[in-house]
Specification:
- InterPro entries: PBP/GOBP, PBP_GOBP_sf.
- Keywords: Signal.
- Pfam families: PBP_GOBP.
- This protein is mostly helical.
- The chain is about 55% helix and about 0% strand.
- About 30% of the residues are buried.
């Protein structure tokens, strides 16, 4: 799997799959794998590591992953604490280097802030747009 696809799917997993293995903030690899099984995930991502939507493959993956996560409040807004916890706890793996907890939380806040308003017609589209926004913010930081 190429690097762009790995980053994008990693972000998708962070935001989509809730784990019972590590307290509340780590992904469950078995559930993520189950969502990807039988799915040509290479067709989900463009050359800029953005999730392609609308797409049957993308919709199938995100609908599966949404069943395991609690990413929205009752009011339809993002559950910021949950998403920030996921971003922060997985930040070291995301950037490929060790980052202490305080710095990871700060960086998670910086990635989340410009992307925190759900945009889309349905939860799949909202999470795809959120994922793509975070990828853009991460790319900005990588080139700054």
């Amino acid at each position: 799997m190429n690097g762009k696809l790995m980053i994008c799917l990693f972000l998708a997993c962070i935001f989509q799959v809730r784990s019972g293995v590590v307290p509340q903030v780590n992904i469950d690899a078995d559930e993520a794998e189950a969502c990807m099984k039988g799915t040509d995930t290479s067709s989900m991502v463009d050359e800029n590591a953005h999730v392609i939507y609308p797409s049957e493959v993308t919709t199938k993956y995100f609908e599966c992953a949404l069943q395991a996560g609690h990413y929205f409040t009752k009011d339809g807004e993002f559950d910021s604490e949950y998403i920030l916890g996921k971003l922060a706890s997985n930040f070291s793996a995301l950037v490929g280097e060790d980052v202490d907890g305080k710095k990871a939380r700060q960086m998670a806040n910086e990635l989340y802030a410009p992307c925190n308003v759900p945009k889309g017609e349905n939860n799949v589209e909202k999470l795809v747009n959120f994922n793509n926004c975070v990828v853009i913010e991460l790319q900005k930081k990588a080139t700054a």
